[in-house]
Design a protein that fits this description.
Oligomer: single chain
Strand order of the largest sheet: 1-4-3-2
CATH superfamily of the largest domain: 2,3-Dihydroxybiphenyl 1,2-Dioxygenase, domain 1
CATH architecture of the largest domain: Roll
Mean pLDDT: 90
Strand content: 25-35%
Order of helices and strands: EHEHEEEHEEE
Shape: globular
Largest sheet: 4 strands, mixed
CATH topology of the largest domain: 2,3-Dihydroxybiphenyl 1,2-Dioxygenase, domain 1
Structural class: alpha/beta
Number of helices: 3
Number of domains: 2
């Protein structure tokens, strides 16, 4: 098998409008598709019955890896357990920003909580800060200093 591209990654959200305010309005991602998926195809590929899910794919360009937000209307999840950053499995997403300090200040003003203030990596190549989306998914904001 030869992998061609990492196409997108999915995040199941509780409230699409709250998540859009974070990912679109605060982080500045553009929406490339907004669909409600239902029917035999989605039922078969997910191995469930009577699925209805709203999916929004967004990012910085259509050619980049996209963020896919999924709000299941037919099946309600239990919510996050607010697991630790070191637990096994998918644990965070990283988004590159131009200026992590201004992103931090802007998001704090809008009520977004952070795990720390922006920190420069020991080798001086990046400046990083972790915040959380409305459902508690950790989001790493990264400013590349040296490429």
């Amino acid at each position: 098998m030869r992998t061609v591209k990492v196409r997108h990654f999915g995040i199941v959200v509780k409230d699409m409008e709250k998540s859009l305010r974070f990912y679109r309005d605060m982080l500045g991602l553009d929406i490339f598709s907004d669909n409600v998926e239902q029917g035999d195809f989605i039922d078969r590929i997910l191995g469930l019955r009577k699925i209805e899910v709203r999916t929004i794919k967004m990012g910085v360009s259509k050619d980049a890896t996209l963020v896919e937000l999924l709000e299941f209307r037919s099946h309600k999840g239990e919510g996050t357990s607010r697991s630790q950053i070191y637990d096994i499995g998918p644990r965070h997403i990283a988004i590159e920003v131009e200026d992590v300090d201004s992103a931090y200040s802007s998001l704090v003003e809008k009520g977004i909580s952070f795990l720390s203030t922006p920190e420069t990596s020991p080798e001086g190549k990046a400046k990083v800060a972790f915040c959380q989306d409305p459902d508690g998914t950790p989001v790493e904001l990264v400013q590349i200093i040296i490429r």
